[in-house]
Amino acid sequence: MEELHKAKQQLRRDMASLKSSYTKTALQETSAKIMERLEACSLFRQAECIALYHAIPGEVQTAGLIEKWYQQKKILLPVVDGDDLRLILYTGKDSLKPGSFGILEPTGENSVPESEIDLIIVPGVAFDRKKNRLGRGKGFYDRLLSTLQVPKIGICYDFQLKEQIPVEPFDKKMDLIVTEKETV
């Protein structure tokens, strides 16, 4: 178990250093390509209610996608609630405030029954070709994903997609992974 933990921590460090080698502009342009690929997915096109996330620096940027779609589809964003994430309906830029980790979160209380959610789009530090995901290590998404019975799409930069990453039994697999270069 200790070896696995060390391997995960090392991979998180490697990814952080790789990200820092790209300019903010390069990551923005790459994010735009990933968003185009995501929008072309039938899972995305058919979904009426999508759980998404507001990106922090270095993650695939989602703000443009959120703004583009929130009036046509229900867009839910996570709010940190103790050790868990609650999904709240996004109603526009004015409804956001920085949350626990400085991540923009919706301020409303408008939640949507889990049965209405058609798709969840998930960030990650790294993914692999077997559709495994490595998160930041706090387990927020693994806990959320264990309660949602919906398709899961991981989005990441191509350099975050590895042949294989260290995983634990509770790590949730994705249904698809979208990078700027391919959909796995």
In terms of DSSP E residues, the strand content is 15-25%
List SSEs in N-to-C order. HHHEHEEEEEEEHEEE
Tally of helical segments: 5
Please tell me what the overall shape is.
Answer: globular
| Coarse structural class | alpha/beta
Q: Strand order, biggest sheet?
A: 3-2-1-6-9-11
Q: Please provide the count of β strands.
A: 11
Mean pLDDT, nearest integer?
93
Q: Write down the oligomeric state.
A: single chain
What is the distance, rounded to the nearest whole angstrom, between the alpha carbons of the first and last residues? 28 Å
Structural Rg: 16 Å
| Uncertain ranges | none
The largest sheet is: 6 strands, mixed
Helical content stands at: 25-40%
Structural features, described:
The chain has 184 residues and is of the alpha/beta class. The protein contains 5 helices and 11 strands. The strands form 3 sheets. It has a 6-stranded mixed sheet with strand order 3-2-1-6-9-11. Strands 8-7-10 form a 3-stranded mixed sheet, covered by helices on one side. A two-stranded antiparallel ribbon has the order 4-5.
